[in-house]
């Protein structure tokens, strides 16, 4: 395989890995939710439970086969991410009762770890200095926190019942949107300033993610549009993979 083919396979396997973790969390969430939190949603999820199980199994098996065949050195890392994903609903999510936004930071840090590990691939970008890596990963952490916080808007009532200290639960919808938008704008300004100082083109690319996020931050106020929000907010995350693998 050429470098570009290996990059595509790694990119696709990471997509499958994250989708597997997402669906495992959803399946465990269905088992933990007996209808007390949201009866209407619980009934809908129970009807689709078998479908979710097969979709998760398909993602899981395909991911493990690709990693085992093409990137066996990453198999342990892959399994660790899957294990952490399976522990999220039962262990780590509950810590948000005591530590504000813990689940958001937990997921965001895993995104950062994934991209940091991929950045060490022989086929990945070699132009990044230590300074570049710190800035790059810091931006990913900030953008991942933004994305994870947006997903909390659909679960405000459930999170409040569970005592989870998410941003919209602590400060309300409108204030949370303002805070997220300020963080997003701050990342944008920082990247533009760094581009002016260093002329690094990847700063411009990262600043575009902030512009892209702006309308979706406002969209998060409407919980009925969560499916659109979820799909659109995944794009910046995979854009980061594209930058570090393709440039």
Give the number of helices.
11
Gyration radius over CA: 19 Å
Counting helices, strands and paired strands, the structural category is mainly alpha
What is the residue-averaged pLDDT? 77
Low-confidence stretches: none
Shape: globular
Q: Report the end-to-end length measured between terminal Cα atoms.
A: 19 Å
Mind summarizing the main beta sheet? none
Q: How large is the share of residues in beta strands?
A: under 5%
Helix fraction, binned, reads over 70%
Number-wise, the strands total 0
Order of helices and strands: HHHHHHHHHHH
Short structural summary:
The chain is 79% helix and 0% strand.
Structure, described:
The chain is an all-alpha fold. The protein has eleven helices and no strands. The relative contact order is 0.10.
């Amino acid at each position: 395989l050429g470098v570009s083919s290996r990059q595509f396979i790694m990119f696709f396997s990471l997509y499958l890995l994250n989708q597997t973790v997402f669906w495992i969390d959803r399946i465990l969430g269905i088992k933990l939710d007996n209808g007390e939190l949201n009866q209407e949603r619980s009934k809908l999820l129970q009807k689709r439970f078998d479908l979710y199980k097969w979709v998760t199994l398909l993602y899981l098996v395909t991911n493990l086969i690709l990693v085992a065949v093409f990137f066996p050195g990453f198999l342990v890392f892959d399994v660790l991410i899957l294990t952490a994903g399976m522990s999220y609903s039962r262990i780590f999510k509950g810590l948000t009762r005591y530590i504000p936004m813990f689940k958001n930071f937990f997921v965001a840090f895993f995104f950062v770890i994934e991209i940091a590990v991929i950045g060490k691939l022989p086929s990945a970008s070699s132009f990044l200095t230590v300074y570049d890596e710190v800035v790059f990963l810091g931006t990913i952490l900030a953008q991942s926190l933004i994305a994870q916080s947006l997903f909390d808007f659909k679960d405000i009532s459930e999170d409040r019942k569970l005592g989870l200290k998410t941003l919209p639960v602590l400060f309300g919808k409108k204030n949370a949107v303002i805070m997220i938008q300020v963080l997003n704008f701050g990342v944008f300004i920082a990247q533009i300033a760094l581009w002016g100082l260093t002329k690094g083109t990847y700063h411009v690319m990262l600043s575009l993610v902030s512009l892209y996020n702006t309308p979706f931050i406002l969209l998060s106020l409407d919980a009925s549009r969560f499916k659109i929000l979820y799909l659109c907010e995944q794009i910046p995350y995979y854009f980061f993979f594209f930058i570090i693998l393709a440039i």
